Amino acid sequence: MKMKKLVRALHGGTMAIALVLTAPVAMAQNYPQKAVRVILPYPPGGPTDIVARMLTQKLTENLGQSFVVENRPGATGTVGTGTVAKAEPDGYTLLVNASVQVVYPSLFPNLNYDPMADFAPVSLLASGPLALVVNPGLPVKSVQELIDLAKKEPGRLTFGSSGNGAATHLSGEAFKQASGIDMRHVAYKGSSPALNDVAGGHVDLMFDSLASSSPFIQAGKLRALAVTTASRSPAMPDLPSVAEAGVPGYDISTWYGLWAPAGTPEAIVKLLSDEAAKAFSDPSVRERLSTLGLQATTSTPGEFSQFNQDELKKWSAVIKQAGVKAE
User: What domains lie within the chain, and their CATH numbers?
Assistant: First the structure.
């Protein structure tokens, strides 16, 4: 009798363990069963918004449930991001954000969420370089000539940005550190006024996205010297990378990714990652990305997690050395 009870107990325990192990798989197989919110922490219209809507359109088509972009701007993007950090980790609230996701911890020490611990990285989505552009009147036609001029006259050159702590600013600070030069930063409220002042000769140079700087370059109002990624961009294949043009190791990209709240079942995270890869392999999506100077750059959750950590470490060092403070 005791043996029978023991067998039943063991059998019951085995069944319980099996249910626990198979529950996440079953959940993923049944996911999604209702509409999914994809939080975007900025107003509509920017590149992050465009990337998010391309993703949600394909997820809606492929998974049979609505994936709806919800714009939640405020406090430089931290309001919407914080909403996802505190959401139920069930796969029905997701975040699409840019590289600032891993920059903000070094700029805002009092965030009400932890950009690393409070999120489950799902997939990198797209990435692209910035372009190093100068006023055509500046007597330089290469990265090395720019460095030589800056070293000859320390502190004379100015570089514009779309705002303090933005990618356009930090790219310049990283360039200063990597090349050993001194330039003065001039912050603007957006890329457009900064580019206009570079074109007008009020500021010497800028690091900016290919999408916004290309019209100026094509019109001859700006001279492009290089792209910031380690390799050349298919959008401007004749431009060298900053690294090959004289600053070894310089590798800066603007990128966009997908996150879920920490604790979201791994099976759902994997499903979303696989579906993101499928969505961004679509030729129409890739063509649309190319108009923004971006390339589809998807990844596994593990790869994206490591990428987050590497980017956090890189930008933390740049920000600390430059003494950048959020405004």
Answer: 31-128+253-322 (3.40.190.150), 130-227 (3.40.190.10)
